[in-house]
Amino acid sequence: MTVTEPGAPTTGVPSSAPLLKARGASVEFTVRGRRGKTVVPAVQDIDLDIAPGETLGLVGESGCGKSTLGRALVRLADLTRGTLEFQGTQIGELKGKPLRDLRRDLQLVFQDPMSSLNPRMKVRELIGEAPLVHGLATKDSLDDLVATALERVGMPRSAADRYPHQFSGGQRQRIGIARALALEPKFIVADEPVSALDVSVQSQVVNLLVELQRDLGLTYLFVAHDLAVVDYVSDRVAVMYLGRIVEIGTDEDIRERPRHPYTKALLAAAPEIGRTEAAAPLAGDVPSVVNPPSGCPFRTRCPIAEPQCAESRPELRVVDGHQVACHLV
Amino acid sequence: MTSLLSVRDLRTAFNGQTVLDGVDFDLHPGKTLGLVGESGSGKSVTALSVMGLLDRNGKVLPGSSIKLEGQELAGLSERGLREVRGKRMAMIFQEPMSSLNPVYTVGDQVAETVRKHLGLSRRASRERAVELLRMVGISAPERRVTEYPHQLSGGMRQRVMIAIAISADPALLIADEPTTALDVTIQGQILALLKELQERLNMAILMITHDLGVVSQIADDVAVMYAGQIIERTEAQRLVGNPAHPYSRGLLASVPRLGMDRNVPLPSIPGSVPSPADWPAGCRFADRCEFATPQCREKPPLLIERWPGHEVACDHPLVDGVPTPEPAREVVS
Amino acid sequence: MAIEVPVARRTSLLRALWRHRSSKVGLILVGFTLFVALIGPFLVLGNASSDPNYQNLGQSLLGSSGSHWLGTDDLGRDELVRMVNGARYTLIMAVAAVTIAAVSGLIVGAVSGYAGGWVDLVIQRLVDIILSFPGFLLALALVAILGTGMTNLIIAVAVSAFPRFVRVTRSGVLTVMQLPYVEAARSQGLPPLRILRKHVVPNALGALIVQTPLEIGSAVLTGAGLGFLGLGVAEPTPEWGAMLGDGRDLLFTNPTLVTYPGIAIFIAILGFNLLGDGIRDVLDPRHSTSR
């Protein structure tokens, strides 16, 4: 493994130029409260390369910044620091019309398929509005475009004349996917796309996403808290904790050779059918991002933490063929 | 063994639309029954019917029976139910934040329940509150009692809810998706806590969940619900190993596991759960069932004990994943 | 995969309001007032006294009779004819003023909420200033400056209702802007004005729709109040408030002269208020208190 550039991820990245490249990407929110302004560092110093055609899985618990990172990569959250490159072009600073044009290439599939569809629009308009605005269709060709988009996600043409509330959760998520696909994007962030769905419907939607990627050559960032789903869809998996990536490697690396204690805990905690005894649960709560622990952010819950962990924050380094941010491995 | 909670032919309707259609089950003292189903299966309505907490549009229909320690709860007045609720049975919910009052401290809320149910003095109930919080694994409870719900994490809030629920030492705890809103690492903590408290207090738990992983970790018995009915009921480990209803099997198979091959599509159940207005006349799962025969669509199958301790509502129950060929109405083996 | 899609069960707003008890009464009262305003003047035609301003001093202050159902006033004008004709002035004034206030409030409120930043800040401070005057006093002051007359009355009432519409729209817009489908519209690269027009505003209208009938009711009251003080439409226009004012001096001898216009004002306001409450319940059944 050769390091081509300082800070570049070194594992599992195919040799072709990355489709999307983030360096030092950070997102901070300013919250005005009773005690004045509080800066919430949701995402910190992320270096990430995503190769064309790959699926990068992003796992972590609520509040770890995984959704914010996903939104930052498609320019729905602004970077406070760092750079973002798409197909070799800097996109971190784009505004106005150039940014709106760029959005064709970068799409998002939302978690809640109900609240992400405008309740007053029929499916035809939900799917067809943006292609019309971007000039991908004319008023005459719109029906065909919508029908194609619907059929691609396994919905009948007749769905175009209905409103979102007339569909089940799984069908709504299909409509959301059809809407994203209608712009012929290159990169899709799927933000917990199945966690609001029933178990039996989840697998339908996961299968659809995998199939679409194969047929259309899409690149995904798949954000989820369910490690098993992420493991299934992803080529590589990144584990986030308190706004930072703590381990990143191929799906097999993460599944078979996890090195970070947090990754191990996540793997052990995932409820597994047929197991009668719960794994020894991780102690304590996730600390606040506003007031992270000194040194390693995970040390307060880490079963193997040592004094040195409180002193300095471990950087990602290559261990066992993939990257881990831990002093003790 | 006499059952603690005995539910017979429970029917519940919302605005005249039946959503629970004849639910039967027994829960024995100190045991855990997992009630599993997807949204719209009726599992939460079952819990709310037992607790008498249906909103004003919901109604338990005449003929239903809900017996707790021999006392009939169906048709009991709100005042009678209040006597039972909190004392002999208690409930925890998916989202603890919405069940806690944001303007009172955690200590006040626990102490108030203690005072109401046990009739303790202000000071004694305060002490008991601290004790309860310690029991549910909250560190430094003396300090935590002065905090407000928004200052606690999701896992902590659920612990507080559990403390309130067990304050009167109930015989039955109904837990409606208690871990769904929590992170995986916290889920394990809460499940372990429930199990520990169950042993300590000899409390029966009715665990409502969509998560078969949770069920197999915590439940002794499982009842699977679909479209307002129980369609399979047996020991948890047996259900997980030998599901006999095609729906149970499909549900188990659709849960993704680590290490699955992406080139093989995940097993899934086609279609979606029918809404109560669209329940088919015959077997309610027939439209989504790969093994359905024309007869399945005509006559609704009965929940029959086909193997000792294993009931299933299917005319072609699966044995090792293969349907039995003949519509057998009598008990097999 | 077979997809069964349930048929839409959308009932029209009007039908839902008719089913709701209090808004049904509201609909009847408002409908009655509208009917009187539109058709009434033609029904009371027929003789000389059907001109609301026809004076006949020989017939002043008569009680109810076959030829003057509600009697006559001190100038011998038919009370019923004046009431029926007055409905038109009151309604035109109230509806016109509230329409102007609602439309301008909608635009300003939507821009304020959507733009945020200093635009929002400036608009909100201006609204605060207007709101710091009691609505009636503001209208009174405006009429005092602009002079009396229908147009000026409409402007005065519109200005005093306008800031409440701005507030209601702005808070609706702010709520809707948090929703994922607005983020979805942004992620699709739609231009900001289009997002505001097609995704935000249509979903933020609920509160404004509830507010509108309530404001019409309050505009009726403001108009009548100004009329009562002699600051409404010019004499001898048969405006309800002005009629009240005229009858004030005869309160003890001929109480019906204030009673009838008072009842008319009461019916109109009650009707619009019940309608507003009903719309709120129908649009959001969770707020329903009594049905």
UniProtKB/TrEMBL annotation, chain A:
InterPro entries found in the cross-reference section: AAA+_ATPase, ABC_transp_ATP-bind, ABC_transporter-like_ATP-bd, ABC_transporter-like_CS, Oligopep_ABC_C, P-loop_NTPase
One Gene Ontology molecular-function label: ATP binding
One BP term from GO: peptide transport
Alphabetized UniProt keyword annotations: ATP-binding, Nucleotide-binding, Transport
Domain ABC transporter: 22-267
SUPFAM superfamilies referenced in this protein's UniProt entry, alphabetically: P-loop containing nucleoside triphosphate hydrolases
Pfam families documented for this protein: ABC_tran, oligo_HPY
Alphabetized SMART domains for the sequence: AAA
Membership in a protein family: Belongs to the ABC transporter superfamily.
Name recorded for this polypeptide: ATP-binding cassette domain-containing protein
TrEMBL record, chain B:
An annotated GO BP: peptide transport
Keyword presence, Transport: yes
Keyword Membrane in annotation: yes
Listed GO MF terms: ATP binding; ATP hydrolysis activity
Domain ABC transporter: start-end pairs: 5-252
Keywords, ordered alphabetically: ATP-binding, Cell membrane, Membrane, Nucleotide-binding, Transport
InterPro entries (UniProt xref): AAA+_ATPase (IPR003593), ABC_Ni/Peptide_Import (IPR050388), ABC_transporter-like_ATP-bd (IPR003439), ABC_transporter-like_CS (IPR017871), Oligopep_ABC_C (IPR013563), P-loop_NTPase (IPR027417)
Main location: membrane
Membrane protein topology class: Peripheral membrane protein
Subcellular location per the Swiss-Prot or TrEMBL entry: Cell membrane
Family from the record: Belongs to the ABC transporter superfamily.
Protein name: ABC transporter ATP-binding protein
Organism listed in the record: Kineosporia babensis
UniProtKB/TrEMBL annotation, chain C:
Gene Ontology biological-process entries: transmembrane transport
Major localization listed first in the record, in broad terms: membrane
Superkingdom of origin: Bacteria
Subcellular location: Cell membrane
One GO cellular component term: plasma membrane
Keywords, in A-Z order: Cell membrane, Membrane, Transmembrane, Transmembrane helix, Transport
Listed Gene3D superfamilies: MetI-like (1.10.3720.10)
Coiled-coil residue windows: none
ABC transmembrane type-1 domain segment(s): 87-276
Protein topology in the membrane: Multi-pass membrane protein
Transmembrane regions listed in the UniProt entry: 25-45, 89-115, 136-162, 257-276
InterPro entries noted in UniProt: BP-dependent_transpt_permease (IPR050366), MetI-like (IPR000515), MetI-like_sf (IPR035906)
PANTHER family linked: D,D-DIPEPTIDE TRANSPORT SYSTEM PERMEASE PROTEIN DDPC-RELATED (PTHR43386:SF1), OLIGOPEPTIDE TRANSPORT SYSTEM PERMEASE PROTEIN APPC (PTHR43386)
Family per record: Belongs to the binding-protein-dependent transport system permease family.
Protein name: ABC transporter permease
Lineage: Bacteria, Bacillati, Actinomycetota, Actinomycetes, Kineosporiales
